[in-house]
Amino acid sequence: MNMGTKTERLAAATQNDPRWAAVVARDPAAEGKFFYSVKSTGVYCRPSCASRPARPENVQFHLTAANAERAGFRPCKRCKPDQPQMTEQHTILVAELCRFIEKAEQTPSLHELAKYAGLSTYHLHRIFKAVTGVSPKTYAAAHRASRVRAELKRSNTVTEAIYGAGYSSNGRFYEKSSQVLGMTPTNYRSGGANTEIRFAIGQCSLGAILVAASKRGVCAILMGDDPDALARDLQDRFPRAILVGSDAEFEQLVAKVVGFVEAPGIGLDLPLDVQGTAFQQRVWQALQEIPAGETVSYTDVAQRIGAPRAVRAVAGACAANALAVAIPCHRVVRIDGGLSGYRWGVERKHALLDREVQAWLLEKSHMQTP
Cα-flanking dihedrals φ and ψ of residue 192, to 5°? Predict the structure, then answer.
């Protein structure tokens, strides 16, 4: 057989393999799906290896790193295919940093975290945010807030809880206590006692709707078929709060929410009392930026908040949202366009989206009319 012809055939076989395109593009999406070896160098690599491209006639593909090594190839020293993927390495590192933050008596500085990880502060900050969706400082603050909530439930005094959560002084905690807890520490510790929450239950075409507000703003908009179940849900959220029934002024607020549900084109601008983890609040803020009449996928939201791998966590934050329509989690769909789950029922989600699209089309037609 002519050697040139054999070389051409080997090259053609490689070039016709769809995996070759991923190697040429150094596609990170192909990571973990296959490996390739280079006969002329005796090494095997990841698809995304940054080494100089090999000649296609020298390339072979392998399903696993073990297969490549059994074929007599050694791991590339540049892309290190015998070690965990870089994204996996980053995830492991950040998980370790999170444990370090959680165990520390005082919140570690970015410099301390970088020294612990053996990275520059810039690189550490970038990796941490890419994996978790929040900065190390925000993660530490959210964790400390969680510790405060837990300590308030089991400590004998508020002061004991504050120090138990790692705060160095009462003053430092009280500066942010309202933001962290949504109420004073004493009231939170007693299940919302002495915190007044006004609420009313109305009816709309989608069923019963409950609107509740603290002094800081609307803290719950719940929908369902059973008004009593909505009231019990509110009671479970604030078991010892002072729940005050509707008055004429508050009825106007409920009417505003109902009006928006029926006619999304009028818009809804309410002061909100939003309580959640740092990550949940980032997701909820992103949801509020989705225009009415449009939908995005959970993957899109994850990318918008800078945490592209946190798709499941985004879905969890949507499910934890207690402010229907005000924080429009109904505008988030599966990547294939499917509606998937919705806390208040997929049928309501479909109805809300349909109404928003119709309102958008109507507004667009009015703008085009001379």
Answer: 90, 15
Backbone angles phi, psi at 224, to 5 degrees: 180, -175
Rounded CA gap, 173 and 167, in Å? 7
Distance of CA 158 to the CA centre of its chain: 32
> Is the model's pLDDT at 225 over the cut of 60?
yes
Coil, strand or helix at 295: coil
Strand pairing of 332-333 and 35-38?
Answer: unpaired
Catalytic residue ranges: 45, 329
Smallest Cα–Cα separation from 101: which of 125, 131, 136?
136
262 alpha carbon, distance to own chain's centre: 29
- Report the pLDDT value the prediction gives residue 192, as an integer from 0 to 100: 52
Which residue, chain included where needed, has tokens 């009313």? 200
Q: How high is the pLDDT of residue 45?
A: 94
Q: Which residue has the higher pLDDT, 98 or 152?
A: 98
Q: Is the pTM of this model over 0.90?
A: no
Average pLDDT over residues 314-341: 86
CB 201 within 8 A of CB 231: yes
Distance, in Å, from the CA atom of 279 to the CA atom of 343, rounded to the nearest integer, reads: 19
pLDDT band, residue 177 (cuts 50/70/90): very low
Structure tokens at 248: 């004429």
Place of tokens 């962290």: 180
Each residue of 340-352: b (16+ CB within 10 Å) or e?
bebbbeeebbeeb
Task: Give me the count of residues in the chain.
Answer: 370
